[in-house]
Amino acid sequence: MMSKKSPQLRFEGFTDDWEEHKLGDYIIQYSEKTKQNNQYPVFTSSRNGLFFQKDYYKGNQIASEDNIGYNIVPRGYFTYRHMSDDLVFKFNINDLADYGIVSTLYPVFTTNEQLNSKYLQYQLNEGSEFRRFSLLQKQGGSRTYMYLNKLQNMILNIPKLEEQQKIGSFFKQLDNTIALHQRKLDLLKEQKKGYLQKMFPKNGAKVPELRFAGFADDWEEHELGDYIIQYSEKTKQNNQYPVFTSSRNGLFFQKDYYKGNQIASEDNIGYNIVPRGYFTYRHMSDDLVFKFNINDLADYGIVSTLYPVFTTNEQLNSKYLQYQLNEGSEFRRFSLLQKQGGSRTYMYLNKLQNMILNIPKLEEQQKIGSFFKQLDNTIALHQRKLDLLKEQKKGFLQKMFV
Question: What is the dihedral of CA 218, 189, 324, 339, to 10 degrees?
Fold first, then answer.
């Protein structure tokens, strides 16, 4: 039977039980303070990591210019905010500069030679033992304080140094891989944003800045109602087709979206039917954002009557229109004009049909729609890889600590 003092998953060659130790026997407070203003760069220790404060706040230094007496953080040392409103603390290691400074709300410490700092960082930030310990520190009021002398009293299960090093190195490499995929994903999203700005005409322009080879004609203004066709078929029996949820993240089977629960009324006679390839959208918004989704899930689905359904005629490519409405600037300007008194904006289908839109010839529409669809597929692929890596890390964290 596996000992309670060893994790479920270990590196080969390690069999000794992990031993309970008081953290104070392994960490050393660092108390050096600045003797002059801006002696070293100011750091921001956040839940997303440690940053130069000017980078974090995009050029602005938020800390007081009078920072004499701030805590100094040498390279490789820890710092963290000692108070939290939700029991979450983030322990960051300085890998930015030989020295930086933080306010006195942020203790600074290092580990002795028997405790690997990377191993400790994962234990504190993502292990269950520290979460349980922080919960015990909560007293009256909403804020929890984790002074360094409290942290030093924590009892932690710790393996031998070589196993610590293996664990710390493993998770560091995994985090580097996650960060690489995140950067790739962010770059793709930025590229898409740039293409959206350049591949649709800007205010008053008749052509976009960037076009596919072979297209030179001006885009022409048309009333959208000349190209879209309302679909008004409604259900005649309950659960005639699967219920859809049309959200800002896309179109989903409602039971998948709500993890097995069907939120819509079981009495859904009279709901709008959405054939495959047809659009639906919620016709009201509190923040001027509308999301137009195309049914690519099933031959037919149903949505409540708050969600109009329409398709396009043969002169308007549906994918092109979807990108125009969801991500182009013309629809954003149009939706702003529909806002009247009150906080909610209504975009009934008869309003949408009145929109004037710049539209190219059909072949160019098809090229644009296909280009952005392929780009979105690539973004979705990278997002799935990133999500999988994060799930794998979560699983390893559960199995590789006591």
Answer: -120
Taking each helix axis as running N to C, give the angle between helix 362-400 and helix 161-198, from 0 to 180 degrees, rounded to the nearest 10.
Answer: 170
Which one, of 335, 296, 298, 339, lies nearest residue 318 by Cα? 296
| Widest Cα–Cα separation across the chain | 79
- Crossing angle for the helix pair 329-338 and 318-327, to the nearest 10 degrees: 60
Q: How far apart are CA 144 and CA 124, in angstroms?
A: 16
The token pair at 290 is 């509308």
- Contact criterion met (CB below 8 Å) for 368 and 199: yes
Beta strands in 112-243 (DSSP E): 144-145, 155-158, 220-223, 228-230
Specify the DSSP element, H or E, that contains 390: helix 362-400
CA distance 303 to 245: 7
Q: How far apart are CA 166 and CA 169, in angstroms?
A: 5
CA 289 to chain centroid, in Å, comes to 18
Report the distance separating Cα 339 and Cα 39, nearest Å. 52
* SS3 sequence of 213-250: CCCCCCCEEEEHHHCEEECCCECCCCCCCCEEEEECCE
Q: Letter for the amino acid at 352?
A: L
- Tell me the pLDDT of the chain (402 aa) as tens digits: 344 588 999 999 999 999 999 999 999 999 999 999 989 999 999 999 999 998 988 866 666 678 999 999 999 999 999 999 988 999 999 999 999 999 999 999 999 999 999 999 999 999 889 999 998 887 767 889 999 999 999 999 999 999 999 999 999 999 999 999 999 999 999 999 999 999 998 877 889 999 999 999 999 999 999 999 999 999 999 989 999 999 999 999 998 988 866 666 678 999 999 999 999 999 999 988 999 999 999 999 999 999 999 999 999 999 999 999 999 888 999 998 887 777 889 999 999 999 999 999 999 999 999 999 999 999 999 999 999 999 999 999 999 998
